[in-house]
Design the sequence.
């Protein structure tokens, strides 16, 4: 009887621990080979045949198609530079320069990777349409209400994800430091 | 007390195994992966344009809205595939994914170095069957080996500004993907 109870207990622990950790790992998008630069993180190995099992499982679960390494690399940001989650009710300034690339795009998604509806049908910017300062850097204001300059509307959603994709770029699996890949800063200006 | 602690440790160890097995078999059991989402809107071994991502109507998540995309859902069981894609004005790329969404190869217009990206896609077995002399004459022919019999080829053309989206889409409309 004791043996039966004990093994049932062990099996219950196994199920909770095993499935719980799996769910945690996949819902947080755990993957190896991350390159964190400022508030941005890229997983260039996810776009190669050497993709690790966690990234494989995450991709299968979300249904996304990762950017292939011969195409480019995607940097994700969920937080601002001081670590607070990005909130669509705040005015957020993305400012700086991007790593070397033939083209880049910045896109705003909700937490599940879908575009956010807004009245001006703007979901992001490409490197060609951005208004730059004389020194080549740019300011993008991500805010719920219209702003002058490069304005990316949030439509006031609770949380969002920014994805900066670099196309035809030397940034990849071999990139290590932020010196090689300067990413723009993300700072909250005000919240309402 | 000690006995229960031992059972707890045994359970946690077994839990670790459950975790590893679950992570490894999940891609095989997923019903909402990219291939499954794309299958209903695309025929086999033909190029089909993917609808432009818009709020509430994306085929797959995390699509780049600055790009026009088209998909060739391939099945190599009856022979190798030939892909031709004219490059658009700004930027064009061709990415290859296995049935499970692994990006095993990607090339862009500059790496292809021509006005038209031409590729032969085949499995390892089909490549081994190529006559040897053909392999020699095919020195400038780009051969891509697919690790799986089925999968996706995704063609993407950049519209640097929204007004150029029609141009990007029409560049992709000229692409071809067919069995040899």
Sequence:
């Amino acid at each position: 009887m004791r043996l039966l109870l004990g093994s049932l207990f062990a099996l219950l622990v196994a199920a909770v621990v095993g499935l719980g950790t799996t769910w945690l790992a996949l819902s947080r998008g755990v993957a190896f080979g991350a390159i964190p630069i400022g508030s941005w993180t890229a997983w260039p190995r996810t776009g190669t045949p050497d993709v690790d099992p966690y990234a494989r499982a995450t991709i299968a679960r979300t249904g996304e198609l990762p950017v292939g390494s011969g195409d480019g690399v995607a940097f994700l940001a969920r937080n601002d530079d001081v670590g607070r989650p990005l909130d669509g009710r705040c005015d957020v300034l993305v400012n700086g320069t991007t790593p070397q690339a033939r083209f880049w795009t910045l896109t705003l998604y909700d937490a599940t990777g879908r575009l956010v509806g807004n009245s001006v049908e703007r979901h992001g910017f490409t490197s060609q349409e951005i208004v730059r300062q004389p020194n080549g850097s740019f300011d993008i204001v991500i805010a719920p209400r219209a702003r002058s300059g490069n304005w990316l509307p949030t439509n006031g959603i609770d949380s969002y994800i920014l994805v900066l994709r670099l196309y035809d770029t030397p940034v990849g699996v071999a990139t290590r430091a932020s010196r090689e890949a300067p990413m723009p800063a993300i700072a909250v200006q005000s919240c309402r | 007390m000690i006995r229960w602690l031992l059972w707890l440790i045994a359970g946690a160890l077994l839990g670790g195994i459950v975790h590893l097995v679950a992570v490894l078999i999940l891609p095989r059991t997923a019903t909402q992966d990219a291939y499954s989402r794309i299958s209903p809107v695309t025929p086999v071994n033909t190029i089909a344009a993917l609808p432009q991502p818009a709020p509430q109507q994306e085929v797959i998540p995390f699509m780049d809205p600055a790009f026009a995309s088209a998909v060739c859902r391939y099945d190599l069981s009856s022979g190798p595939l030939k892909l031709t894609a004219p490059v658009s004005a700004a930027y064009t790329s061709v990415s290859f994914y296995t049935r499970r969404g692994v990006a095993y190869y990607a090339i862009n217009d500059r790496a292809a170095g021509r006005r038209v990206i031409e590729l032969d896609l085949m499995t390892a077995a089909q490549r081994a069957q190529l006559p040897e002399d053909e392999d020699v004459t095919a020195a400038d022919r780009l051969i891509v080996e697919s690790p799986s019999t089925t999968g996706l080829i995704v063609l993407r053309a950049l519209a640097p500004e929204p007004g150029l989206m029609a141009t990007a889409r029409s560049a992709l409309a000229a692409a071809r993907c067919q069995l040899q």
